[in-house]
Structures are given as C-alpha cells and as structure tokens.
Amino acid sequence: MSSTVISDIVTLVTNDPSLDGSPLGLVRNAAVVIEGDRVVWTGESSKAPATDNRVDAGGRTVLPGFVDSHSHLVFAGDRTEEFNARMSGRAYSAGGIRTTVAATRAATDAELEANLVRFLDEALRQGTTTFETKSGYGLTVEDEARALRLAARHTDEVTYLGAHIVAPEYAEDPAAYVALVTGEMLDACAPHARWIDVFCEKGAFDGDQARAVLTAGRAKGLHPRIHANQLSYGPGVQLAVELDAASADHCTHLTDADVDALAAGSTVATLLPGAEFSTRAAWPDARRLLDAGVTVALSTDCNPGSSFTSSVPFCVALAVRDMGMTPDEAVWSATAGGAAALRRTDIGRLAPGAYADLTLLDAPSHVHLAYRPGVPLVAGVWRRGVRAV
Ligand SMILES: [Zn+2]
Fold first, then answer.
1. What are the structural domains of the chain?
2. What percentage of the chain has pLDDT greater than the value 90?
3. Ligand 1 mean position, distance from CA 226 (Å)
4. Could you tell me the distance, in angstroms and rounded to a whole number, from the CA of residue 293 to the centre of ligand 1?
5. Torsion sign over Cα 342, 109, 188, 164
6. Would you say 306 is a known binding-site residue?
7. Calpha distance 212→204 (Å, rounded)
8. 94 pLDDT exceeds 80?
9. Which residues does the annotation say bind Zn(2+) (predicted)?
10. Which of 116, 252, 268, 373 could anchor a disulfide with 341, C-beta 3.0 to 4.6 Å?
C-alpha cells in the first residue's frame, strides 16, 4: 500500500483534541500522511515520516471533509415557483412537499439517480465527503423502497422517511398511512436503510404518530433520527432524547426543558440554517444549545422545497453570522458534529485510523469559511485517500 504525505499545510484542523487541547486540534505548519484509505499520521511538517508520494498544500488549510448528516437528494423536479412566491410574501407550510412527491413518482430510476449524482458531485466540489440522504418523496411502498435502493448505491447513511408527510391518498385517514409506514412499507424499506426518520410537526405527524413510526423502525433494526421543532414548539425533541435518537434535526423552537433534555442525553442537535434562510424564518439559537453543553451539528437539509443548497460552507457562514457560533464551533459542527449525528468516529476528524477524507481550502485558516462567504475556497478534496477534486 503506497503512502502519501500532504505537507506545507499552514493550518491543519484535525478535530483531535489530544494535539492542542482544543476541540479543533489545530496544528500549524503541518502535514498529514495517508496510507490506502486511512490517515496514519498528523503533526508538524518537519517531523513527518518518509512516504512514497508527496503533495504540496502550498501554504493552505486542510480540514476533515464535511459530514452532511441531513439531506433529501432522491427527488425529481424543482420548486422554483414556490420559492419565488414565498419570497414575494407567502408563508412556508409542510404541504409543498406534495409537488415533489408527484414529480418523483413520475420519474424513472435513471432520472432519479442522475439527479442524485448531480447533487453529490456538487456537494463534493464544496468539500462534502460524507452525506446522509433520505427517502420521503415517494410515499408508496414501491416508491420509498426505490428511493432507498438508489441512495444506498452512493452512501451508507440512508434514512427511511416514509413519514415525511401523510401521502395524498391517505389525507382523510392518516392513521391508515401510519399503519402502512410502520407495516408493509417498513418491511420493504428496512433492508436498504440504516436510519428511520419522521417529520414531527403540525401538518405532518404528531408526537404519538412519530413515536409509533420510530419504535416500529427500531424493532426492525433501524436507528431513529427525527425532524423536530422546526416550524413550531412540539414533542419531537423530547421524544428524540427518550428514544436515544442519534439526532434531533432543526431544533428551531425549543423550550428550556427541550434544551435541558438534549444536554442530559446523547442526542445531537442538528441545525439546518439553509432552511431558515430559504423560508425567511427565525434562526435556531446555536449559542443557547452550546452554552447548555449540547452537541451541535450543522448540515444543509438540501432539498428542493425549503433549503436548496448543497453548500456546507454557506451553512457555516450563516451559523457564525446569525446563530451565535464562533468560526471554530461552526467548523467543528460541520465535520465532527456531523459525524456525531451519524454516530461515526471514523469520519469528521483527521487522526490515525480515521478515513482519509480531507478538504483543502485556498485560505490561511478555516475561519475564512465564515469570513469569505460565498467564495469557492475549496481547492481540493480527498475521499477515502483518493483525490476526488
Ligand atoms: Zn429535512
């Protein structure tokens, strides 16, 4: 197995606190050694071991590839008109998802997969090396299983979201739809997924329905995660902690009891500022969560309705500008935080044994991700030890 050193890194973010005592584990004038698909060494350039190959980082910054732990990329069509109308004054509601459901059902497998790959490439070029993605735009047994099957060709982090909204055919009988989601549809979907998710919100699924969905999934070997407290206060966050969900996602409307529950449990709060940006909604309060000791992840929620961005750097900039995060905290949350939200320790950090997933920034430090918003700073990406960008 050949080894490669990436040297002349002016700022290296490792997320390995053993190196400098800080969460980011910063090393100046650093190098990273890769062997096969793994990191085998990090430290000061002058102390790097001999390797077969050498890449010069040119005095730039290297950090772990972004871990985007929340996206909805198996879909067809777009919702430009809805966005345009909303930016002209109309409120966002969960119902717009139906538009995408109709387009997704009508698409061929090849069309759906081509669309998925397009967004994965887009995300990779912006430094994302791991992504989670969900079903939820099929809402029939066949269409949900198809979405998961297609997603599983491209990522290990696949989430069954049959409970995205009540399928239009069941509008008059939501209980029957929950029975389908927790019965026949779950049986068809569980073999293709790692996670189960539910949109716990007024207009989607209430606390009892969400509990039924997540516990049924857990009985089939899927791990829970949840869309919680996005548009209003609700039971989602408390349910997530009670069921030891890996992540409660959105967390925009939280009571003190919700924050306390997150701080006491092991559920990550995943914040998705692209959604608030794209719906002109109030920002989630990251500062409040961090000060309470909650683990926070940052992710794109990339989807055609409420957050049509695949850019983690954009989310980092929003989190720093509008959600009270420091640049260090936002970068940690977009890398190690995302890994925590997926209960992974082999990604989101650059330490011996972790996957060699790295992003090279054309900048003197990671702070530039927030300092220079909208600028394409990503100059290189390695995924599993292979240069991909
Ligand atoms: Zn979502």
1. 3-65+348-387 (2.30.40.10), 66-341 (3.20.20.140)
2. 94
3. 9
4. 24
5. positive
6. yes
7. 14
8. no
9. 70, 72, 227, 301
10. 268
